[in-house]
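Key result, reporting period 2: structure in, sequence out.
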């Protein structure tokens, strides 16, 4: 099911009563979520991700604008008729019910034509449980299960009514690192297997990048960029997106363009033909540095961190925004690092220039 937003906006009165202006939690969303894909909705805490999900589910009414599921305008359709499955961070299972009863629960209130017999409900619940691979635990209570298993029950419960749209709000936040990794792979598998349009909300860029067909990067209620993860990583439209994606994060320097050359401090580090003279922020991905004795960018070496296949060179530079510059090189090259100053050449496609005032990309 394709989802279309048209100037969708949600405002809340400010929680701080002294501030008169409303908080714009979702600001003028106008874009389309393609059918049958896994979309990662990504952004820092408080940027409006949960509000956006709640508008899609119908738990919240927009202040203005419209939402369509396919060609149907669902803006005023109550939540229970939207065919949306929801999964939250805190599982929200009924503690006194078994796994079977928890998963079956959404089916119990079906009325009229949709009403199901107990056998039908159990069969559907078992089918959903198989999908998330907890069908061997149907008689357990939530307290007798791990966090990962509980979250699977919550996902099965969201799937049991075969929703048109599955919404997952930070579903992995309560799990430990190993389970998080495993469960995110599971979610990707379940999405592919069912083909249900799924929106996965997270503040963790790595999580979103790893499983999403497309990511939507948000800040302060607004969408900053949407696209395939690698595409957004390679072509960030502004400094915020560049800084938000990638571990280790992009290195940001203050620099300037003069006569088609990019300067960081006094050094001309890269030829940037066609870019007019201006002050810029220079974003350099950690993998964008090349160790070269005659390289134009000179940094002060702090230490070398070996990470198996790769080596991370930690250094400093006066023009860098962060206390350290992090570059990643192949471990074969490690013996070429000597103390004192390290010299780098730059891979042009790993260097992004942003206007100093607007922070929009210029190169
Ligand atoms: P996220 O899920 O990205 O962390 P939210 O959607 O929960 O962000 O919140 C977005 C903004 O809207 C925040 O500034 C938050 O304080 C505000 N907000 C969310 N819900 C309400 C509400 N019911 N009343 C007032 N402000 C709210
Ligand atoms: Mg949230």
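The corresponding designed sequence is given below.
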């Amino acid at each position: 099911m394709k989802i279309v937003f048209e100037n969708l906006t949600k405002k809340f009165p400010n929680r701080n009563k002294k501030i008169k202006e409303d908080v714009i939690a979702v600001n003028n969303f106008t874009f389309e979520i393609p059918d049958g894909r896994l979309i990662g909705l990504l952004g820092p805490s408080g940027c409006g991700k949960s509000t956006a999900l709640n508008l899609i589910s119908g738990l919240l009414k927009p202040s203005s604008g419209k939402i369509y599921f396919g060609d149907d305008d669902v803006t005023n359709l109550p939540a229970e008729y939207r065919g949306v499955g929801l999964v939250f961070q805190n599982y929200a299972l009924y503690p006194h019910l078994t796994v079977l009863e928890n998963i079956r629960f959404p089916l119990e209130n079906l009325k009229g034509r949709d009403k199901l017999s107990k056998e039908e409900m159990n069969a559907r619940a078992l089918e959903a449980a198989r999908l998330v691979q907890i069908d061997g635990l149907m008689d357990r209570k939530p307290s007798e299960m791990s966090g990962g298993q509980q979250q699977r029950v919550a996902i099965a419960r969201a799937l049991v009514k075969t929703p048109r749209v599955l919404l997952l709000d930070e579903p992995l936040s309560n799990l430990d690192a190993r389970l998080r990794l495993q469960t995110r792979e599971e979610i990707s598998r379940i999405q592919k297997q069912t083909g249900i349009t799924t929106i996965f909300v997270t503040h963790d860029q790595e999580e979103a990048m790893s499983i999403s067909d497309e990511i939507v990067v948000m800040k302060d209620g607004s969408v900053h960029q949407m696209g395939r993860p690698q595409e957004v990583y390679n072509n960030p439209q502004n400094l915020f997106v560049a800084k938000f994606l990638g571990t280790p994060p992009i290195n940001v320097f203050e620099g300037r363009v003069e006569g088609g050359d990019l300067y960081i401090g006094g050094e001309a580090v890269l030829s940037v033909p066609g870019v007019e003279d201006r002050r810029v922020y220079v974003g350099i991905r950690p993998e964008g540095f090349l160790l070269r004795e005659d390289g134009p960018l000179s940094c002060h070496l702090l230490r070398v961190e070996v990470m198996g296949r790769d080596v991370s060179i930690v250094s400093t530079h006066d023009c860098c925004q962060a206390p350290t510059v992090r570059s990643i090189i192949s471990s074969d090259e490690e013996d070429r690092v000597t103390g004192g100053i390290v010299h780098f050449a730059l891979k042009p496609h790993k260097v992004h220039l942003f206007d100093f005032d607007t922070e929009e990309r210029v190169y």
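The CA atoms of residues 261 and 271 lie 5 Å apart. The radius of gyration is 25 Å. This case is discussed further under Risks and Mitigation.
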